[in-house]
Specification:
InterPro entries: Kinase-like_dom_sf (IPR011009), Pkinase_fungal (IPR040976), Prot_kinase_dom (IPR000719), Tyr_kinase_AS (IPR008266). Residues 109-483 form the Protein kinase domain. The protein contains 12 helices and 20 strands. By secondary structure, the protein is of the alpha+beta class. The strands form 5 sheets. Strands 5, 6, 7, 8, 9, 10, 11 and 12 form an 8-stranded antiparallel β-sheet that branches. Strands 1, 2, 3 and 4 form a 4-stranded antiparallel β-sheet that branches.
């Protein structure tokens, strides 16, 4: 859709309260209406407006209506514009509060709403606002669910309700299901084409977290955030929920000074599913998740020879956490400085061909990363992060190998027996996997803290070495800024 209609995509991106968009395709004799929404595109037949001018007039009246809902705008969002410049200066959004009452939230105009790119799909939009009752900052999330999940439009709110009280999981304040449906914007006799999905819009109000994990400022901060997000994921699994969409966009930093458990926040339970003993109750969906961070098992679900497809389990999500860790350590030279272009090792995981993406990940599991291509591992991240990455890679690589052995028994055991072997492997390693990975993170964090403390002592000592007379300055003299000091790395 993006390649065939970039102007329409821009309209959705720049008008975050848009639910659909309509335009006309006009020739010398004929006209047709093009309609775009989260379910896809709808085209009317061509109509000869010379013989049927009324239809053209009705089209024009509809497209120039003063009723915002007829124009495809969500009227629960309202803007105040500067009369001189026409720019939006304030905005409000109607949503339920903690008591389920519809109230008006004031939008934070200093923070741009997040809008998922593309037209067709979830169309996730996140608004920064202020709770009128408490004065606290909140995040209001709109998302369109489709396909098999359209009838379960409140799934995320149900999962968030079950996750209340888990440190490291974003906390829900309220929710509103079935805000709108893509089918409402279509003719009553509309016949869906192949691939069309009716999508249902739901809205949740969440406690606002801090920054995306990409905005980390130190080694300790980002490794702490990942450690706490994995710990939160463990609690989620213990409550019978699998996340299924682990990616950097779904991991936020905790607020400054947050205690252990709240230094990293796991968000976005759109793709979550119920689980038992760490396994989802349905087969893997290869279209679920973010390609770069999908596990090898999920990618294999695209192969028709991989039958039956095993369920998505917590080990798939832990593998996704590994790819997130890789992306941060290998994709950033230091805070705020991502490698450009994206390293080939990571870019290869995003290949649209599932088999190619899987092969690139198998190479990582078998060989690790080429150290000479990533000097930042020694120059900035240091031995603690290097050993954390290697320890997690080795552990997940063994998981991938053990799963492959079960697949290889296809000709020797029945489907039911193979499924039982898979379930037994997943359940047996549940506690051990989280304990082992948590230990790796705690060891790395302790070493980082020790190195940072030594660096601080050394920096203080160096600041005291100059003669005292050289340090004197008059009271009127402005203090000079302290320049950042390059950390001396201690190699293992």
């Amino acid at each position: 859709m993006a390649s065939t209609c970039p102007p329409a995509q821009q309209i959705f991106a720049l008008q975050p309260n848009r639910t659909f968009f309509r335009t006309l395709i006009v020739t010398e004799k004929r006209v047709r209406l093009a309609h775009y929404d989260r379910g896809g595109m709808y085209l009317t037949p061509f109509i000869n407006y010379h013989s049927n001018p009324t239809t053209l007039i009705l089209f024009m009246l509809g497209l120039t209506s003063h009723d915002e809902s007829n124009l495809g705008l969500d009227t629960s969002v309202q803007w105040t514009s500067d009369p001189d410049t026409g720019r939006k200066v304030a905005g409000t959004l109607e949503a339920p509060n903690v008591r389920g009452e519809t109230v008006v939230y004031n939008l934070n105009m200093e923070k741009t709403p997040f809008v998922r790119p593309g037209i067709v799909g979830r169309g996730t939009t996140c608004w920064h606002a202020t709770d009128p009752d408490t004065g606290k900052s909140v995040l209001i999330k709109d998302a369109w669910r489709g396909g098999d999940r359209a009838s379960e439009s409140e799934n995320e709110s149900e999962f968030l309700a079950d996750a209340r009280g888990i440190p490291g999981i974003v906390q829900m304040i309220s929710h509103q299901g079935n805000c709108a449906a893509a089918s409402d914007f279509r003719p009553s006799d509309f016949k869906a084409n192949a691939g069309y999905q009716n999508r249902i819009k739901a809205r949740v109000v969440l406690e606002e977290c801090a920054e995306p994990i990409w905005n980390f400022t130190s080694r300790h901060q980002v490794i702490s955030a990942l450690r706490d997000a994995i710990a939160a994921h463990r609690k989620l699994v213990e409550r019978g929920i699998i996340h299924r969409d682990i990616s950097p966009w779904n991991i936020l930093l905790g607020h400054p000074g947050a205690p252990e458990g709240l230094r990293g926040i796991l968000i976005d339970l759109d793709m979550a599913m119920r689980a038992e003993s760490g396994m989802s109750l349905d087969e893997v969906d290869p279209q679920t998740g973010t390609r770069t961070y999908q596990s090898i098992s999920v990618l294999l679900a695209n192969d028709p020879r991989n039958d039956p497809i095993p369920p998505h389990d917590y080990l798939d999500d832990l593998e996704s956490f590994l790819y997130v860790l890789c992306h941060i350590l290998l994709g950033f030279k230091k805070p705020g400085e991502p490698s450009k272009p994206t390293p080939d090792l990571i870019a290869g995981w995003d290949d649209p061909d599932a088999k190619t993406a899987m092969t690139n990940k198998v190479v990582l599991m078998a060989e690790g990363y080429p150290e000479y291509e990533f000097p930042q591992i020694e120059e900035f991240w240091g031995p603690p992060c290097r050993e954390l990455l290697e320890g997690m890679r080795v552990y997940i690589a063994d998981v991938v190998y053990q799963k492959s052995k079960i697949r290889a028994k296809k000709s020797k055991v029945s489907t039911d027996e193979r499924f039982e072997m898979w379930a037994a492997f997943v359940e047996k390693n549940l506690v051990r996997s989280y304990d082992h990975i948590d230990s790796l993170f705690r060891t790395a964090l302790a070493e980082i803290a020790r190195e940072d403390a030594e660096d601080a002592v050394q920096a203080h000592a160096e600041s005291q070495t100059s003669p005292r007379a050289d340090c004197k300055r008059s009271l009127e003299e402005e203090p000079q800024p302290t320049l950042p000091r390059k950390r001396t790395r201690r190699h293992a």
